[in-house]
Amino acid sequence: MTFIEFFKQQFIEEGIITRKMLSRIPDDKFDYAPHPKSMTIKRLATHIADLPGWLQFTFENDELDFQTPYGMPDINNTKDLLAFFEKRYEDGLSVLVAGNEENLYKPWSLRNGEQIYFTNPKIDVVRMSLSQQIHHRAQLGVYLRLLNIPIPGSYGPSADENSFA
Prior knowledge:
- α1 (3-23) runs antiparallel to α4 (78-94), α1 (3-23) packs parallel to α5 and α2 packs antiparallel against α5.
- Helix content is 48%, strand content 10%.
- It is built from five helices and three strands, in the order αααβαββα.
- It starts with a helix and ends in a 19-residue tail after the last helix.
- It has helices at 3-23, 41-50, 54-60, 78-94, 122-146, and strands spanning 63-65, 107-112, 115-121.
């Protein structure tokens, strides 16, 4: 199995879980934040929905510079959130093709103008992007739990879907 094949399998599996989690957000909770230092559900969920597209961004660019604006849509309901997720999911899936295997080893940088935070092979950035999706999805799970919204299972049933009892 190539790395592209491995990442594609992981991408598809994580996409299923992410789609389930995003679909649970009620339209009237987009402004909710559990703490003053926390993102709102709107900001967190939009970021989660965007993350699959980071794979396309990684393969098509050699860096992300925080000095360059990165546009995000203004999403205010779950229907639009899921549509954005599906678009970004297809963007990410589109680059997980055999021809990109050799591109995994090219350098990619994260910077803020002249300050370079890191330069790593694109393979590391792809793995980080998948990890970011999982990490932020777990944050969203906490938000949903605090709102008493049933949480879907990720890698088995959740406490709300416990079929082991």
